Protein: tRNA(Ile)-lysidine synthetase
Organism: Eutreptiella gymnastica
Amino acid sequence: ADYVEAWCVQQGIQFRKRVITECKRGVTARDVYEKLSREIRYAFYQEAVDQDGVQAVMFGHHQGDLQENVISNLMKRCQLLDIAGMAVEDVSSDVTIWRPLLPHVKDEILAFAHQYGVPYFKDTTPAWSTRGSMRNQLQPLLADMYGSGYLQNLSSLAEHSCQMSELVHVHILEPFLK
């Protein structure tokens, strides 16, 4: 956070930070930690939106994050209409979220960063974590079994899920609720 703060100051970008002390990973029960830390983060986002008078909070999720979400959400038995779990524009806990990098793969983003001197951090996801195991073990296995096209198939599944969700909401739920 210190590096990001210094870079923001150097660029004339307002920086906000909220340290979560109310719970601690590895000490607090995982489900309690996940729920409480999410509530704290989104309250912080809402506070920033309100104080700065902006429309949304912007996240850096990319196509790889979406593909990981699809795998994770399928394993967690998420509903068919929300397999992606994220969209380019979304509302979560009353906070509008923009994800402008979502249509792009990580290699495109890194190429842009290198070309224009934009600093970034290497992936620090622990290998022992669920995401780390997915990246280091499951995804290479899926690529060996199904070829690299499996990633695009996950992205297509996410897109179809979003389209079906919109169809159901616009043509079934909203007319019914009126």
In short: The beta strands are 57-58, 89-92, 95-98. The two ends are 47 Å apart (CA to CA). Helices lie at 2-11, 30-52, 63-75, 106-116, 130-146, 150-177.
